[in-house]
Design goal:
With 267 residues, this protein is mostly beta strands. The protein has helices spanning 14-22, 147-155, 160-175, and strands at 10-11, 26-27, 33-35, 44-55, 61-63, 69-71, 73-84, 89-98, 100-102, 107-115, 127-129, 138-140, 182-184, 189-201, 206-208, 212-218, 227-229, 233-239, 244-246, 250-256, 261-262. It has a 17-stranded mixed β-sheet that branches. The protein starts with 9 loop residues before the first strand and ends in a 5-residue tail after the last strand.
Length: 267
């Protein structure tokens, strides 16, 4: 999963640092903060910078789910080791936003903690108990997982060479996810979340009002956005493109296929 970011970061000018300080910003080291030129410092207010932070152009507006436009910029947040694309809006991050590459036009607003820990695998490779909940026919999570793949892996166990090759394919795909940063895709929206740890969010996805997301991937596409909202709790999961997960759903070690709809306190 990738995001588009500005490719020409520049160090802050002394006059820009002075303006940011006057607007309530702080930094462990201003030398670790790089920006696109021209910077719009008036759109960076009450932000605490830690580690290396790279900021793209803050020109333009972002549009929310309610149709209202808001200015891009950084407002009342703690940013640590993040790379921000152009036209991003980050506002009211109460505790920490750490270890993320944020795609162009994305919104992160009213979030408690959103963090990627070093060496995260985003739940990929975790075994899901299928067919037999007692075990023995587990299917590993990985982005290319399909019903056909799971069928072969679960119900053709007697074909040892096939099973070993399928497992190797899944392990290689899961291993490719191991990295020290998460991704929020282009035009994605993460709004009103209490805790998000080691979670990738695909382009144009909507994550709204969730309680806790830990170790997972939300795949999405601009033509078929994925929606996760309203009190969802999920740990070790993969949600495929176009799916909708809402209304106090609880997921644990779960694969949600393309265009699936899950709601009303399902667990």
């Amino acid at each position: 999963m990738s995001s588009t970011v500005d490719s020409t970061p520049l160090p802050l000018r002394q006059s820009e640092i002075q303006q940011l300080v006057a607007q309530g910003c702080t930094a462990r080291s201003w030398n670790a903060v790089s920006v696109a030129d021209p910077l719009l410092p008036e759109r960076i207010v009450a932000v605490d910078f830690a580690g290396k932070v790279r900021i793209g152009s803050l020109a333009g507006d972002v549009q929310g789910q309610d149709g209202r436009s808001k200015p891009a910029g950084l407002y009342r947040a703690v940013l640590e080791n993040c790379t921000l694309g152009s036209g991003v809006r980050i506002a009211n991050v109460g505790e920490l936003l750490s270890g993320y590459h944020i795609g162009d036009g994305a919104t992160i607003e009213n979030v408690g903690r959103m963090q990627t820990l070093p060496g995260a695998r985003f739940g990929q490779g975790a075994p899901v108990a299928a067919v037999n909940e007692a075990g023995g026919r587990e299917v590993p999570l990985f982005p290319e997982l399909s019903a056909q793949f799971a069928y072969l892996l679960c119900l053709h166990r007697y074909r040892r060479e096939l099973i070993e090759r399928l497992k190797a394919m899944a392990a290689a795909a899961a291993a490719s996810f191991a990295r020290d940063h998460g991704v929020v895709g282009k035009n994605a929206q993460v709004v009103g979340a209490s805790r998000i740890v080691n979670v990738d969010v695909g382009p144009s996805a909507v994550v709204e009002g969730v309680q806790s997301l830990v170790d997972g991937v939300i795949l999405s596409h601009s033509d078929d956005p994925t929606i996760v909202r309203n009190g969802v709790i999920a740990e070790t999961f993969l949600v495929a493109e176009g799916a909708q997960v809402a209304d106090l759903v609880v997921l644990t070690t779960t694969f949600v296929g393309q265009a699936c709809q899950i709601g009303k306190q399902f667990s």
